[in-house]
Amino acid sequence: MTTAIARQTKQKSEFRELRKLAEQQMREMDKKMREMETVIEQLKAAVGEAPPQPSPLDQVHELLEATEDLRVANGKLSATAIARAFGVSVNELAGWLGRSRQSLAKTPDADSLQNELAFFERVARFRAVVPPDRFLKWLRMPNDQLDGDRPLQLMAGEERQVVVDLVEDMLTGAPT
Fold first, then answer.
1. Cα(9)–Cα(48) distance, rounded to whole angstroms?
2. Interhelix angle 132-140/79-86, nearest 10 degrees
3. Per-residue pLDDT of the chain (176 residues; tens, 9 = 90+)
4. What are 77's strand-pairing partners?
5. CA 117, 120, 125, 126: dihedral to nearest 10 degrees?
6. Is 113 left (phi over 0), alpha (psi -120 to 50) or beta?
7. Are 148 and 142 in contact (CB under 8 A)?
8. How many degrees, rounded to 5, is the angle at CA 83 between CA 82 and CA 87?
9. Could you please report the per-residue DSSP string of 12-69?
């Protein structure tokens, strides 16, 4: 009987030690996860997945009206609407965003897309001062202020903020 009690006590002690070890490892894993999330956010910012820089134009009613068609009923930007406004296919836009066509078609207003789509919304504000057909032409024409690059070409790459800055300069009359 004493041996059975001693074995039970030893097992309880071993169980407590294992439990402490598991809890310690869980705390360490939580800490590592937080560190990884920070690194992921930094990487997203480095590759352009951070939202565009804030602009005083964010509050101008006429500019916001010019991009109303890019949002769905819940107020989120829609990849489908943006593709239409920019005269590109959803498949092409998906490639620019590093997503699959299927994921964009399934949830075109996904939370994970909003920062990236915000760049397109900012550029689409130019439609407040030019007709849609002129906007589409402007996107596809070489631009001296962009070193001869086409705005749409830069939007397809990692230089979206450059095009956003140009549009905002043009809308505010700031020298470029």
1. 58
2. 80
3. 567 777 777 787 887 888 888 888 878 877 776 776 666 666 665 665 666 666 666 666 677 777 899 999 999 999 999 999 999 999 999 999 999 999 998 999 999 999 999 999 999 999 988 999 999 999 999 999 999 999 999 999 989 999 999 999 998 887 66
4. 71
5. 180
6. alpha
7. yes
8. 115
9. HHHHHHHHHHHHHHHHHHHHHHHHHHHHHHHHHHHTT-SPPPP-GGGG-HHHHHHTGG
CA distance 88 to 129: 21
The terminus-to-terminus CA distance of the chain in angstroms comes to: 90
User: Whole-angstrom Cα distance, residue 166 to residue 123?
Assistant: 9
What is the distance between the alpha carbons of residues 116 and 155, in angstroms, rounded to a whole number? 10
What's the one-letter identity of residue 142? P
The CA–CA distances, whole Å, from 99 to 81, 102, 104 equal: 16, 8, 7
| DSSP character at residue 89 | -
**Quick one: which H or E segment has residue 75?**
none
Contact call for residues 47 and 160 (beta carbons, < 8 A): no
- b vs e for 91-106, b when ≥16 Cβ sit within 10 Å of the residue's Cβ? eebbebbebeeeebee
